[in-house]
Amino acid sequence: MDTYQENFYEKDYFQVFTLSNDVFFNGRENNFEYNMLKFKIIYSVTLMFLIEKFGFS
After folding, report:
1. Range of the domain at 9
2. Which domain of life is it from (predicted)?
3. Which residues contact 1 (CB under 8 A, 6 or more apart)?
């Protein structure tokens, strides 16, 4: 866990999507920037899903 936190910004963005649920949702919950990144990813995916499903324009 310590190694993951130290090297977070050196990893590819893609690795954010391949983390285990435990690390992704609980590993850095005190880090504001990480929470914002998590929110933006979830919000973007949800919005794209809704647009695709219901055809909002």
Report:
1. 2-54
2. Bacteria
3. 23, 27
Q: Is the Cβ–Cβ distance between 49 and 35 less than 8 Å?
A: no
The size of the chain, in residues, is 57
Q: Structurally, how many domains does the chain consist of?
A: 1
From the number of C-beta atoms within 10 Å of its C-beta (0-12, 13-18, 19+), residue 34 rates as middle
The segments of the chain whose pLDDT lies below 50 read: 1, 14, 20-22
Task: Compute the distance between CA of residue 46 and CA of residue 26 in angstroms, rounded to an integer.
Answer: 20
Positive or negative: CA dihedral 25, 26, 30, 31? negative
Dihedral over alpha carbons 18, 10, 7, 22 (to 10 degrees): -20
Both tokens of 18, joined, read 């391949």
